[in-house]
Amino acid sequence: MMNIKTVPTQPFADQKPGTSGLRKKVPVFQQPHYLENFVQSIFDSLEGFQGQTLVLGGDGRYYNRQAIQIILKMAAASGFGRVLVGRSGILSTPAASCVIRKNAAFGGIILSASHNPAGPNEDFGIKYNISNGGPAPEKVTEAIFARSTAIATYKILDVADVDLDKLGSFKLGEMNVEVIDAVNDYAQLMESLFDCDRIRELLASGHFRMCMDSMHAVTGPYAHRLFEQRLGAPLGTVQNGEPLEDFGGGHPDPNLVYAHDLVERLFGDNAPDFGAASDGDGDRNMILGRHFFVTPSDSLAVLAANAKLVPAYRDGLAGIARSMPTSQAADRVAAQLGIDCYETPTGWKFFGNLLDAGKATLCGEESFGTGSNHVREKDGLWAVLFWLNILSVRQQSVEQIVREHWQTYGRNYYSRHDYEGVESDRANALVTDLRAAMPTLKGKQFGGYQVDYCDDFSYTDPVDGSVSQKQGIRLGFTDGSRIVFRLSGTGTQGATLRVYLESYESNPAHHNRDPQVALRDLIAIAEQVAQIRQFTGMEQPTVIT
Ligand code: VG1
Ligand code: CO
User: Fold this and answer.
1) Which one-letter DSSP state was computed for residue 237?
2) Which atom of ligand 1 is nearest to the CA of 20?
3) 21 CA: nearest ligand 1 atom
4) What's the domain range around 86?
5) Which of 376, 409, 442 is the last residue of a domain?
6) 528: number of Cβ within 10 Å
7) Same domain membership, residue 540 and residue 399
8) Residue 151's domain is classified under what CATH number?
């Protein structure tokens, strides 16, 4: 006899998903009914899942296990036929996408706040992915939010917690739960895409040294299995490979600021040839060569230009897609290849339709995210393997490959300046003022730069025609340089202002500049136009990438 409880509840007003799901501090999620309300709102906005499969897993952060117990009991009460859950509740974001696709699941719930710090007073997050394995499109997230503002009850099975640490299946009410190996399907997929023999030769050669920093987040088990067990890299190649509930107290955001241990090694004496890091949930990546940093925007362009070296992309790319603030380096490769380049709003959910429709093969964001049509999420370890595949074929250093790329296509100098923890009112006031100034900026001269256009980016999805407005204020100059302003949609405290800066340099004699120097004039223009210091009360950005 199934014991389904119907629990009365009241709406919470703050369950609007952001760029990538709902993210809040753990104590917010721990409030009675908070998580349950959101999960029931997801289920209530879906149709036709009775008897179907749900995939469930997370990045292993604090509250992951408790949340999974709750969601399992709610899925059983709502009539799912089967839940595939990663052992110990672990699935990286790209692995969850892979498992959804491979098992033709109805959808998936991913528990993650990505790179945001984890722990009892840090961040937690939840998002829903649809049957293509990708983040729910805005239409769905809006329906979930609408439902969350009206919810009155949720259903949950009244049973004891289940054991998630043993592989195998069991019944929860009438629903099957299968505890699966979190790595298998994903590792198989990776091995089907790349030239593993060559990568193995490279890694086992003894001439090439690699260092992978999993930052005590979810990719540890994946990286150990792939690099050390399957591809022959020496033990110790993966560092910080044990996922911890608080990520070891760190901030698993793979960039020059937060991945400092790795950066020190790659820029130190006797540095390895190749370094990489991934984020909390495994969808981001940072690529380093010896004494060399690859900008994510450049990484996308280099992957695209070298895609034919990888078995999965040997027949060429259908197209490339990048988020609007991402540099235009990939556009130049697309032009050369004679393929389309799409410009989407920030967030991976906007790539799904392009990938499904076969319009794009590779996608990327400036925020250390790259991916392809192999899943419907950005994929950190995929990008690392892609680079290894290129390195193994070209037998050049990371730096040589990027420098040659710049010689061929020119260099897009790029940087993002983040102002974190700004008071929300002040950040909103900055944006309001900037919007008001927009009409006066076109044609204006700032030193050597003339404003070509100024707008608030609006995107019309070429597949389903849906429109997303106000996706970032763009200031484009006649020489192709750009400044973009937008507010983050993933933070949990105050507001984060992001300022994206880009300029183009065709002359190889000028490819050696520090981006902060090359972009100095644009940085000053951004300040002049948006009065960043005055509005934020900050003298400089909190993070520069
Ligand atoms: C940020 C990035 C965006 C990325 C998103 C989710 O969003 O800028 O490119 O898709 O995080 O990535 P925002 O709204 O804070 O700028 V993850 O790895 O945090 O899931
Ligand atoms: Co992430």
Assistant:
1) S
2) 6
3) 20
4) 4-182
5) 409
6) 11
7) no
8) 3.40.120.10
